[in-house]
Write a structure and sequence with these properties.
Length: about 350
Amino acid sequence: MKKHVEGAAIRLENCSKTYGSSARALEPVTLNIARGETVVLLGPSGCGKTTTLRMIAGLVAPDKGGRILFDDQDVTDQPIEKRNVGMVFQSYALFPNMTVAENVGYGLKIRGVPRADVKIRVNEMLAMAGLETFANRSIDQLSGGQRQRVALARAVAARPRVLLLDEPLTALDAALRERLRTDLDRLLRSLGITAIYVTHDQQEAMALGDRIVVMSNGSIAQIGRPNEIYFQPANRFVAEFVGAANIVEASLKDGFLELPGGRVQVGSEASSRREAIAMVRPEAISVVPPEQSSWIGRVESTSFLGDRVRISVGEAASTPIIIDAPNSLSVEIGDRVGLVIPPSSVRLLPA
């Protein structure tokens, strides 16, 4: 839980962005972000997430009729320097001619904060970021992860109302990215700053977001908590973009999906439908002997992934079914297997 809340509540009202006469980068968006909340804007390149972030920052103005409010104060026409936002970029944007401590204190210095107070705040930020022993080093003596910590400490030092992060971990290797993701989550929850985080990485979104805003083609496809986005996707795009998903198109009869390899029971929501697009996550499917299931397929491939075995099963549906099974499971290519899914794990999507 966040210890205290210092950030601003944010509201976007009917905010769109058109470049030139017809290049629409963002369709009209309305979005509410609570004080102290971490919201992740998730989606592929060109979906509008960075435009939304830059609009909140004051770097991009919404089209006529759009409004941006911080704590019910209209800031639509305010420039970035008057909004009291902190920004962290993928490129770090640090000053190479300054030490770590000078970089962290730069924003405070140009705001006219007394020198003694700057020193106190800088020391607090260096301790927070685990950089105390690096205070007098130059930026070119730091690793990529250390530079990103400096950028974050600098952004937080000025105590912004809103912290904006634009794919800050993308340039780092996978292991370091995962470590910093954990550190960043801990930091945001301890500070209570309102944070908006842009990424195309669904694992980052799941790990960091109180809520996730999934975007596609300049529009919001779904807003929800990470578990809602994963288990209850609003449409096929969300289902396939957030995690691995089996998408099955089939006819419905008496509450069952009729598939080439047999029948799969679904929930009561299917009672009034005759055709369905269904989603099942790979880990929701159990592999059993064929005589123990009404849905049968044949193993096409297996991959040992350490914590699990990923199996591709053909003949069960019109496309291969992907299953994440326990790593103790032993099957061979060509084996006939039964597949079992709890009805509650089958999500019916809009046609």
